Automatic annotation (TrEMBL):
This is tRNA (Adenosine(37)-N6)-threonylcarbamoyltransferase complex dimerization subunit type 1 TsaB. Residues 36-155 form the Gcp-like domain. Its EC number is 2.3.1.234. GO terms for molecular function: tRNA N(6)-L-threonylcarbamoyladenine synthase activity. It holds the Pfam family TsaD. The gene is tsaB.
Amino acid sequence: MKLLALDTATEHMAVALVTAPGTALTRNLPGGAAASSQLIPQVLALLAEAGLPLSVLDAVAFGQGPGAFTGLRTAVSVAQGLAFGAGLGVLPIDSLLLVADDALAQAAGDTVMHQPGWVLMDARMDEIYAARYQHDGRGWHVLTAPALYDLTTLHTLWAAEAPAWACGSALTAFDGRLAPGTARCWPHIADRAAALARLAEAALQVGPLLPAEAALPLYLRDKVALTTAEREAARRASAA
């Protein structure tokens, strides 16, 4: 098993090269604007470190989102270009599930993750990318697919069914306004690239591979910025 995996959906760039089952070279680096110029050099550096040409890989995995508009385009375009050039298939990876899998590693065997919980990532514009997952001890199950939420909707959902755990950047970004009850919380990610390697390896085992032209990002919003009036209204609402 030899597999390259890329994710630039957040302000953190993750790159992983799986060289054998359970074995990977990984990089966690600043993302955002730096991702477009640094992703390919980091990929080439990992391949050189492993002594592997791209052509011997089994597939290229990529974080499909949801996440930042430009970041998603970066990972998808690089994965697609590499796969086309080497004649490889691609594997889309749920970028929110990366956060859940990292929290699972931080939980260090705590069975709370075997109950339903939420990944909550700051989507800006006072909204949250969120999804509900559960780990059964062998693998992940998607209970509620990634979607874009406001605070009111999430709190309404949690009033009906409180989450056992929650993780993601929104727990910090919303500064106490996001309250998942008594859920165990992991607001910070520890090793996104290691989680990416694990999920990419699992995805390759399950399959199927997609053709390179099927590498597409998961966008959850069409509007990517607020107007000046909308920003001012949001500021007043937050202050109130």
